[in-house]
């Protein structure tokens, strides 16, 4: 065996230890400091290789944290998970480093070749080419055992007590470096935590100031009566997001901003189970909630001018009135997920939106009552008792009854009370038509300005009512033009009679009887059953002849009456010879047994065709 090796001088030892201390104080990376310890072990004590090994957090394995003189291949092999087990299954898998850490004492192996206890050692030693080693545990003052320092000698030799003591001294230096690094890390963690807390405090103060500013702005908006549109625009600007207010039936009430608007989820997205569950629970939670995100990024639709992408969030807050969901406040694509303070601001806005909706409802209720009273006074038999008062009240509601108006009636089947029907009528009539509407007798009366023509708007109203009132069928009859205030009652009775006639046979649709002439008097006073029997009795033989022969008697009769009973005009309209028109008219006279030259016959046929059109008894 070789002879013991001792340091050449105290000066060299102090210099080496001082270098380690300087590295520690300079806060060099821990692995670099431990590599210096390993280097000094070789230089000061006379070893060829050295490694500083640390226990993994699970304290099941040792890993090389710093080394000197060892090959990369050896370090990689020693650091393998199965190499340095602290608690191996038996001596064949044990190592001096694991024993030193496990027992907390220095292990000396003069000759690897005869160390039968450490089976793993003989395998590892041949890879690096060492014969002897000393393994000293690293014991930190506060942390206890943290690792081992292993010094390797190429030649087998008996290690002296001084060498062992010096290795243990360097192990203490390594442990001190570890403890210093731990304390420095803990100190840095405290400093970081304090800095983060300070930043969070400043941020919290800033958010509080922002929330107070938004509260003041909200109060200013309420006092300024900017309305729902103004409130939504202010919230969109404050959150840098798209904001939408919809009623419980998903109808749009307001939205912002005008440019770069991101809509809320589509109807299809809302039907998906996670989103539907969140929306169903909205009124119960009464909180701002985030909708479940989908794999595509969000359960929404493409933005106006901005395609959807990952990270685009959708938040929604309930607007509750009287314990019931009155609207939904959507926050789409905010710059960041709303903070708790921002959520409170959203909840305040939702409350103010609820107040705004309540105010609107109150105004609608008041206007509906006033409109109903006005319609009742206007349509009373004999006309209004105080015409000028009716004109003034109508003007206060925004209607000029001094101009000609069409009088229409709206009836629903099956009959029954419908909440907020006047509000539905105004919403469905569209921006171009603002009817004066109110309940009268068993129907709703609608007063429509003669210009623009109300036909398309009334068809749109029928579609809107069909969607808003499933299970109900709406019939609208438009009566004659009321040119004077005293004409409205008679026009209403004509329209109501036409509506009753249609509902008795085939409810639903639009009945336009604005130009009936004398037939309007019969609609005003006749019963639906009597009018239907009259039309069928007069026209059924003609219709039956057309059905058997494939003829055109009814279309010819209709065109002849519409042309002022002119045979030439009828022939030109139908693109047939005048003699053909005369022949067909002659056939009609024979079938019905009446003279078409008589005025009463023509009047009866015109009325019969009108009734046939209203009740939908057939084409032509």
Specify the structural class: alpha+beta
The strands making up the biggest β-sheet line up spatially as 2-1-5-4-3
For the report, how would you describe the main beta sheet? 5 strands, antiparallel
| Strand residues, percent | 15-25%
Low-confidence stretches: 3-8, 295-311
Shape: elongated
Number of helices in the DSSP assignment: 21
Helix content class: 40-55%
DSSP, total strands: 15
Give the terminus-to-terminus CA distance: 127 Å
Radius of gyration: 48 Å
Mean pLDDT: 79
Overall description:
The protein is of the alpha+beta class. It is built from 21 helices and 15 strands. The chain has helices spanning 10-25, 30-45, 72-78, 96-103, 119-128, 161-224, 227-239, 267-270, 273-280, 282-285, 340-378, 387-396, 421-429, 455-468, 488-505, 519-525, 528-549, 553-562, 567-574, 578-592, 599-615; strands spanning 49-55, 62-68, 107-109, 132-140, 144-153, 242-246, 252-256, 289-290, 314-321, 324-332, 405-413, 436-440, 443-449, 473-482, 509-512. A hairpin with a 5-residue loop joins strand 6 (242-246) and strand 7 (252-256). Helix 7 runs antiparallel to helix 11, helix 15 crosses helix 16 (519-525) and helix 17 (528-549) packs across helix 21 (599-615). The protein starts with 9 loop residues before the first helix and ends in a 5-residue tail after the last helix. The model is unreliable at 3-8 and 295-311 (pLDDT under 50).
Supply the key terms.
alpha+beta; 21 helices; five-stranded antiparallel beta sheet; disordered N terminus; 620 residues
Quick synopsis:
51% of the residues lie in helices and 16% in strands. The protein is of the alpha+beta class.
